[in-house]
Predict the 3D structure of the following.
Amino acid sequence: MTRFIIRRLLQVIPTLAALSVLLFIWLRRLPGGPDAALLGERATPEARAAIRERLGLDEPILVQYGRYMKDLLRLDFGVSTQTQQPVIDEFLIRFPGTVELAFTALAIAVGVGIPVGYLAARRRGGWLDNLVVSGSMVGICTPVFFLAFVLKWVFGEQLGWLPTFGRQSPGINATHVTNFFVLDGLLTREWDAAWDAFLHLLLPAIAVASIPFAVIVRMTRASVLEVLNEDYVRTAEAKGLTDRTIRGRHVLRNALLPVVTAIGVLAGALLSGAVLTETVFAFNGIGRFVYLAIQNADYPVLMAFIMFIALTFVTINLLVDISYSIIDPRVRVH
């Protein structure tokens, strides 16, 4: 297992190196160059010359790339043109909120989607199966931002069950250690703060989880149906094994292989789906910040966002590979 993980980690290095080159080229191909992008179209020649000298844009390209890589390794993405604060500081404040939202949405999609898909497959053709198939199709076809507005209107404004904006109520006296508000509440034993942050997560998390949930349900159902028709399942039944043993050892374990792969892809997509959802719920995460960065051409923020998303995808794919190798040990051999 250790050799397998090390091999996967070594494969990550070329991916990140290629991405760093693409980002470097993109920055220098911006309209008017990086100096014009940072200063705006109305910048004076003197100001552009000064910032080119400060950024080292008048030096040889290899020297520029070396300095650029050095900054990346130190997580120095420059200063945001929106807030005039270091980009990394802004990310450390906002990115935990998006990760918390994506993780909660993924937990909902996986924790509910796999059991529902399995039950639908075991009752193929019944009312539950028909309901699951129809419901999952609706979930796939419904835009996330539209569902976010519906959830906000029904459960927040009409019923008043859940909060509809922000990450925490203004009146909560909470200690923020990691900027993961739920985790901070648990670490500091401020149970009211943790519960309040969790309630603020529910509506946006359900909205973000809708499409991944529908995909996981359908994939689990199809995969279980396929496995149920395999010879080794019929052999296990003929041997008189208990239904629990057949479900756990033969059906679910083999049916989860394609589902785990899909979860890895969906987990990365959750971060991009959070952009619109955070805007609807005024959720102070990185998605809303990046949305404003696109409007204001805040290129340092966009560069950091691309790199963080890439690191997230790489990490998720590594975890998927490890999970895959645990479910099917034959993967480690290839």
